[in-house]
Amino acid sequence: MQNSKSALRSGRARIQPPFDERMREKTEALRSQEKVRILSLETSCDETAAAIIENGRIIRANIVFSQIDLHALYGGVVPEIASRAHVEACDRVIDEALREADMSFDNIDALAVTCGPGLVGALLTGVSCMKGLSYALDKPLIPVNHIEGHISANFLTHPELEPPFLCLVVSGGHSHLVNVPDYGVYELIGQTMDDAAGEAFDKAARVLSLPYPGGPKLDQLAEEGNPEYLKLPHPHVEGYDYSFSGMKTAFLNSCHTMEMKGEELPKADLAASFRKAVVDSLVGKAKLAAKDTGAKKMAMAGGVSANRLLRREMQAACDSLGIPLYMPEIKLCTDNGAMIGSAAYYRLLRGETAALTLNAMPSLRLV
Ligand code: KG4
Ligand code: ZN
Prior knowledge:
By secondary structure, the protein is of the alpha/beta class.
């Protein structure tokens, strides 16, 4: 009697490998694929942002939903409100990114998400969203450090840029001088001892009654002011480290004294004086580090790298050293998904994908 059809089959049992193992296999295959498209999501603070990036360098879509209006009422980011707004906006920014690129999920090879540092609730919304998408679409997920993302924004604006370079990372939470000898390799050579540059700008802006977020508004106002109006103390910090709390306190005290005397604050002059003090310090140490380390290229990254004076002064410093300066275009300086997609591509090339156990890491360090 003839065997039934199923009884004649032979070979290995057809059980799919566990998810994480299958993702590693897929990632391995993607490493040699000519064109890799990554859908990335950024939710570490108050921007819900999605992007589609090709080979780490080409922006196919870049959608940023800013929550500024939601937080402006409170004068700063309210973590709980940020998390809720991310939950509502994640799907929308991803859909919009696909629409802008004229793509569907079928055209996406891998997913990426910021896993830290940042607000824990905000990070968790993005990480959960992308883990779910990774499982549902059966596509690898790449975890990205937010600061690494900021540095990688330079690869999008300058397709010719390759490591090694020295990078000044200045954002709301970080002020770092980082040596980047290769993709994904970072050597921290200097950092702030207290406030981050962006944080100092925001606090100074608040004293001048500028609406949140104050940094960009203080920068704009400073363009019309006299930077010599108020002399602020210069921090004496060893090596390539920074300190902004002394100049911030001196600035706040001067403003409060004027207010107590009933004087009207010359806001533009005060903004210009504070901006000059911060920028002089940032540029001074960056220039010193470039000279001492013999850096051949300098880059800048993070929200504060949008600062007009900082861009001008860093350019002048690099010109005097005879080295090129790379800066992200303004819209890629502040938080966005494109920078996460760029960083993710180089992680993918190194085979670094996330397991489904990936969690938010609010205090994640760059190195
Ligand atoms: O990188 P980012 O968008 O978020 C963080 O990762 O922190 O940086 C936001 C910070 C805020 O403190 C904001 O006030 C500051 O960057 N910022 C500026 C300017 N644009 C943004 N600070 C000074 N001048 C600007 N033009
Ligand atoms: Zn940022």
